[in-house]
Write a structure and sequence with these properties.
This protein is mainly α. About 50% of the residues lie in helices and about 5% in strands. Strands 1-2 form a two-stranded antiparallel sheet.
Length: about 150
């Protein structure tokens, strides 16, 4: 998981307590699941599997929907069946969606002063910049030089 959790207690950072409800996994027999990392040392952090991890997943889905709405990228899981590199469902369409996401994160970065939000937006920028670079290379490789 690449999600970072901030302002954690010692037991939460060590993976001994839930990052949401602070339940102590050593004292209570609660099933837990890895949900991200501590920014202090990149160690895995955990949440209660039944309730808290579900809340984290719902929050992540909500944030993803909001980001897709803000960037105009629409639904996830668009099929990649188009043979043309310039099709909306092909690598070119994916490249354009990554570029729109980068433009949206730039706009959000210029208005945000909250450090956790800035860090999240920077991680989003890194992911989409790498994807855009990869997709641009794919489209270049699939495009004839003479524009034929």
């Amino acid at each position: 998981m690449e999600r970072y959790f901030w302002h954690l207690s010692g037991p939460q950072t060590d993976g001994l307590a839930c990052v949401v409800c602070s339940a102590n996994f050593l004292l209570k027999r609660i099933a837990s699941v890895a949900v991200g990392r501590s920014p202090a040392d990149e160690s895995q952090v955990f949440a209660c599997k039944e309730t808290c991890a579900e809340r984290i997943a719902e929050d992540a889905e909500r944030m993803a929907r909001e980001m897709r709405t803000a960037t105009g990228t629409g639904a996830v899981g668009v099929p990649q069946g188009d043979d043309s590199p310039f099709g909306v469902d092909g690598p070119f369409g994916s490249l354009l969606r990554d570029l729109r996401t980068l433009a949206g994160t730039e706009a959000l970065l210029t208005t945000s002063e909250d450090i956790p939000t800035i860090r999240f937006l920077l991680s989003l920028t890194a992911r989409h910049a790498e994807a855009a670079m990869r997709l641009a290379r794919v489209v270049l490789a699939q495009t004839p030089e003479g524009g034929e």
